[in-house]
Amino acid sequence: MEDLTGINGRKDGAFLKNWSYYDLQKKIEYKAAEHGIEVRYIKPEYTSQRCSSCGYINEENGVDQKTFKCLKCGFEANADYNAAKNIATPNIETIIKETLAKQNKEN
Questions:
Q1: Which residue from 24, 39, 68, 85 has the highest number of Cβ atoms inside 10 Å of its Cβ?
Q2: CB of 56 within 8 A of CB of 73?
Q3: Is the model's pTM score more than 0.85?
């Protein structure tokens, strides 16, 4: 799941504790722990800009807030679905870092 600490600029998480998404995350953690499932949190940076099909990262990937469209391969999907697929990708933070480095070299 997304690590949303610091989303409002506060490290104490006061904003999150009043947000229903935070409550949902805590319930998921509780249920997962009951069944011995590990919950991992990742930093969400670039997960909405990365194409889950080809891996291309561009801040202009997308048509609008709801629709993702890759400028490189043309892949289209719901923006939240695309970001969720990226978040679910093992080692996504490392993959994003390496992709950005490669893309910066190419430019």
A1: 68
A2: yes
A3: no
For 13-36, give the DSSP string: -TTGGGSHHHHHHHHHHHHHHHTT
The sign of the CA dihedral 42, 65, 27, 89 is negative
Token reading at 73: 């391969």
Segment holding 78, helix H or strand E? strand 76-78
Which amino acid is it at 70?
C
Tens-digit pLDDT profile for residues 68-105: 999 999 999 999 999 999 999 999 999 999 999 999 99
Find tokens 């104490």 and name the residue: 12
CA distance 55 to 32: 29
Name the helix (H) or strand (E) containing 106.
helix 92-106
Q: What are phi and psi of 35, to 5 degrees?
A: -110, 10
What is the distance between the alpha carbons of residues 49 and 51, in angstroms, rounded to a whole number?
7
- Contact 99/55 with Cβ under 8 angstroms? yes
